[in-house]
Specification:
The complex is a heterodimer of chains A (about 450) and B (about 250). With about 450 residues, chain A is α/β, with parallel strands linked by helices. In chain A, about 40% of the residues lie in helices and about 15% in strands. In chain A, the strands form 3 sheets. Chain A has a 6-stranded mixed β-sheet, sandwiched between helices. Chain A is globular. The relative contact order of chain A is 0.16. At the A-B interface, helix 6 of A face helix 4 of B.
Amino acid sequence: MLKIVNGKQDEAGAGILIKDAKFPSPFVSGLEYSPPARGAWNIVHTGMLIPKSHQIFICTQGCLRGVVLTAAEMNAANRFSTIAVRENNVLDGDMESLIIDGVTDILSKLKAKPRAILIFTSCIHHFMGCDLKLVYRTLRERFPDIDFTDCYMNPIMRKSGMTPDQKMRQQLYSLLKPVSVHKKCINIIGNNLPTEESSELVRMIIENGFELKDITGCKTYEQYLSMAESAANISYNPVARISGDTLQTRLSQKHLYLPLSYDYAEIESNLNQLAAYLHIKTPDFTEEKAKAEKALKSAKEIIGDTPIAIDYTATMRPMGLARLLIEHGFNVAAVYADTINEEERQDFIWLKENSPIMKLYSTVHVKMRFLSQNSHKKLLAIGQKAAYFTGTSYFVNIVEGGGMYGFDGIYRLMQLMEEAFLREKDTKSLIQVKGLGCCSL
Amino acid sequence: MIKIAVYGKGGIGKSTTVSNISAALAQQGMKVMQIGCDPKADSTITLHNGIMIPTVLDLIRKKSNGFFLEDMITVGYSGILCVEAGGPTPGLGCAGRGIIAALEKLKEKGAYKIYNPDVVLYDILGDVVCGGFSMPMRSGYADKVFIVTSGENMAIHAAANIAMAIENFRGRGYAQLGGLILNRRNVKNEEKKVQELADDINSGIIGILDRSEIVQQAEELNKTVVEAFPDSDMAMQYKILALNLLKSCGKELD
């Protein structure tokens, strides 16, 4: 365990005034710390969104611990298996047959045959150049009634090429097969959580007679496969953008990338793009904007000048949210984010110029192990990591934007902020549960 | 697109042979890509006047993914597209992994689709010592493997190992053995020994190259024999070998 040896807390390198931060990576990469705020979903949680699927992880035993615990904690151990790679497999070069024989053995022991199998290979397969094409071809020939797809637990991909999160969300839709398209069907893709039905995004789709499909609502494998019928995919999480582009190429489904935003003009532009696609009149959002404004004022009256901290797990646009709040008089003291997305560039620049002494903290810098605070001053956190690092018991417990989108999303978020400010939470017990909103026990 | 991998014991003359084959095919008007899979990165050196070219692994090391397909390819003699996979830091790193990384990067950057060569020749170091060195045999890379050998015992031993690896991969849809290339060292009973090997592995000798000083003379000029001494008997032997290789792959030139 890491210990402070000089008795002093030193945040240099782990925390910085935003005016001094560089885009897109304000912090030096190195030894990393993982705070015990586990609400953000991991590849196991996301993969389980495919109904009737089974996951098989193949790697060395030591690396299986985290994913095994995730599956057990979400009460999905019966949809999860592992195959351990040992030294003799590396020496004998039988990595391919280990997977093929292992998967065959697992299938022979499962009581009910899964409709789909997600095979997670790991770094060792990548290092050794394991012939995964051969593996999948053999398995598909051997089990023609089961769909197989390739997933990855490969930490070396974290900072090169696609991230594991991007890849997972892409592979989540890889089992969709070309079918005839239903023009009045639209998917929202790339989210772990369903989008609020009250959002303008969902309402515009439903109220104009379109059927909305989302993997988060699929109960059967057929429902999942039917997502291939949709004429368009909407993504709004930046990490899912590649998923939409891939489906556009593979299934000719139109991709509308309408990134989550807290900027009125951007929200309106996104919704207008949707309106154009739906061939409907450009909607008037005056009422929705007024409702959001009213909610912001109400929240400000209650929260006052209490410092606010936001982290990147709560929303894909922490800079954008900070900007919105500052523009409405809130006291945003800190944002916890390790990198800044391209989507956030303008908000980041705005914050540098208009709120230069706002602090920007890394969440993984090793010094964050010691910067955890138990502030006696009341502070409102938005997100679990911000709650942990500030030691507050007043926090908005959401991940990935919490399914809130558009003007309605701002309205709802303000309600959650008010509620969080007024009602204390048991932070420790809440943030240690993995995968907030999944079927965890 | 004809895709050929040439294997054989280290020092047996693979790069010289492959470069001369490339030159001979290019002279016939074919678009040729030669990919050297040797950490020494000198497979294609006689195709571009002895100048060392940037290797794929050097580019990956220095620029991660921030480089273009053209950065990996040097256009050499008669338009031959020259690529050197490169290798790890000597004494450190993993040469097999290096080949995997280089070949994956070439594919990822669209080398085969964008340049669309008529012939791709992989020149692979030595014996099949690990999965990385067998990468060019895999589905999607070479269709046929040719093994360069002499009558020397070590060369025959290496050739037998390579043939065994190909046999082990039977059923995987990998490259098939196209035949042996005898590069004479003038040892006793050389042709007989290599023919015995060919019989043992159910293959044949598809070309014989004499030991000739002209090969070294051309190398001293940093050129292939085909370029430096086009009218020599050796140049003719390489040209015949190149045509035989194509024929083994189902392609005949006039």
